[in-house]
């Protein structure tokens, strides 16, 4: 199953609650003046049926700061902002006076939106002549940021920096494209049909990491995924490790103490019923010295589902992640999405909750251990809500409360970021 067809499947699954592509009422754009604390200012929520999108802002206490900060049809600040149906926030929190939103495919655009006014102030196309499908954005300084371009250009050479499957260097202030980091060396020795597909970027102190899903250009197959450490001074590859047979690795997060990375991998293909689990799992990477793979937990350890796209640390050694349910060949529910809590030191795990009725409805996981809270996107509960889990001093999850970030447009929440 291709990455694009996964999104289409998600749209079909949500159709019972939200008609994909149906006309939408556009809420008025609204900013916020919330003051930051040690965790930032709040949570960025992207609701989407993969035809249209809305961006909401929540406070860490669960308050709705802006039900519609940006949407698929909004005009303000002197020019129009029209998000596509495949929009997402960066994984790293936006700071300063602006929030960045990735308009992935087919647009391939970065939107810079003022927090206080919700006015779009700049945008930067990063496709350089093709649908680059930007998956993440990491700002390193005022005039330098990295963009992970997931897709590769099948016909490069027509514009500068148009090869794709790379890390694009951009100046977010100008804004302008300044160069690229070629990731081809990370797939050295692999057949030419496999391209890097860089997905999530994570910064730990002065170190920068990106996970490579490593699909074929047509997504029909995959090779073993990689974790790459980048050199932000030289804008080059510093180190690469293979993720021990895992494939389709799109999600990466760092432990609160910066000593460990966790990588979530769905496997190469989700089209079988039940899905094959052999290449799906979680990789734990030690950062204390050089990059080293210290443990791999197969998806089969946790049950019949492949590991999903939601993953974050609730506290030291305490990982919260989701698994992807599936439909049978006769289109009945074979298994529901499950949210797990994993102790990365002992390997002990427990089930936190399940999706209510349908697979592919639990989305992003985002935790702020210092503020004792985790959030999970749930496309079903309460008509589509953000589940807010309080954390105690042992980083145990309390009972969740369901928050409707936005009710006028009515799209299901999928992605979570920070600001």
Descriptive notes:
The strands form 9 sheets. A 4-stranded antiparallel β-sheet has the order 3-2-1-32, with no helix packed on it. It has a single domain (3-418), classed as YVTN repeat-like/Quinoprotein amine dehydrogenase (Methylamine Dehydrogenase, Chain H), CATH 2.130.10.10. With 419 residues, the chain is an all-beta fold. β14 (198-204) and β15 form a beta hairpin. The model is unreliable at 1-24 and 75-79 (pLDDT under 50). The longest helix is centred in the N-terminal third of the chain and has 11 residues, at 3-13. The protein contains 1 helix and 32 strands. The chain starts with a helix and ends with a strand. 3% of the residues lie in helices and 44% in strands.
What are the defining features of this structure?
single chain; 419 residues; mainly beta; Methylamine Dehydrogenase, Chain H; 32 strands; 44% strand; globular; disordered N terminus
């Amino acid at each position: 199953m291709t990455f694009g067809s996964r999104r289409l499947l998600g749209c079909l699954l949500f159709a019972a609650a939200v008609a994909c592509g149906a006309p939408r009422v556009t809420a008025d754009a609204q900013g916020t003046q919330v003051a930051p604390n040690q965790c930032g200012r709040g949570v960025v929520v992207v609701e989407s049926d993969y035809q249209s999108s809305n961006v909401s802002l929540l406070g860490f206490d669960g308050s709705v700061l802006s039900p519609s900060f940006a949407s698929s049809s909004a005009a303000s600040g002197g020019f129009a902002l029209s998000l596509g149906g495949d929009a997402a926030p960066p994984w790293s929190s936006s700071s300063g006076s602006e929030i960045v939103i990735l308009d992935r495919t087919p647009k391939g655009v970065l939107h810079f939106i003022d927090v206080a006014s919700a006015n779009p102030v700049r945008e930067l196309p990063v496709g350089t002549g093709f649908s680059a499908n930007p998956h993440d954005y990491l700002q390193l300084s005022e005039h330098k940021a990295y963009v992970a371009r997931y897709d590769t250009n099948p016909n490069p050479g027509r514009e500068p920096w148009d090869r794709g499957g790379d890390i694009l260097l951009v100046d977010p202030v100008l804004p302008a494209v300044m160069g690229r980091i070629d990731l081809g060396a990370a797939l050295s020795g692999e057949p030419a049909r496999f391209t890097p597909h860089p997905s999530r970027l994570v910064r730990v102190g002065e170190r920068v990491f990106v996970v490579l899903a490593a699909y074929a250009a047509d997504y029909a197959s995959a090779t073993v995924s990689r974790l790459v450490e980048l050199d932000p001074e030289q804008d080059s590859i510093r180190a690469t490790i293979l993720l021990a047979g895992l494939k389709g690795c799109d999600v990466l997060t760092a432990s609160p103490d910066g000593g460990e990375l966790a990588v979530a991998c769905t496997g190469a293909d989700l089209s079988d019923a039940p899905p094959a689990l052999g290449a799906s799992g979680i990789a734990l990477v030690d950062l204390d010295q050089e990059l080293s793979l210290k443990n791999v937990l197969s998806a089969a350890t946790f049950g019949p589902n492949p590991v999903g796209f939601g993953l974050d640390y609730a506290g030291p050694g305490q990982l919260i992640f989701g698994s992807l349910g599936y439909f049978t060949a006769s289109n009945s529910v074979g298994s529901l999405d499950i949210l797990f809590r994993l102790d990365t030191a002992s390997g002990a795990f427990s089930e936190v909750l399940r999706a209510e009725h349908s697979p592919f409805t639990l989305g992003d996981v985002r935790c702020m251990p210092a503020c004792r809270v985790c959030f999970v996107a749930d496309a079903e509960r309460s008509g589509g809500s953000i589940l807010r889990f309080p954390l105690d001093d042992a980083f145990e999850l309390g009972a969740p409360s369901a928050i409707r970030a936005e009710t006028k447009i009515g799209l299901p929440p999928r992605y979570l970021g920070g600001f």
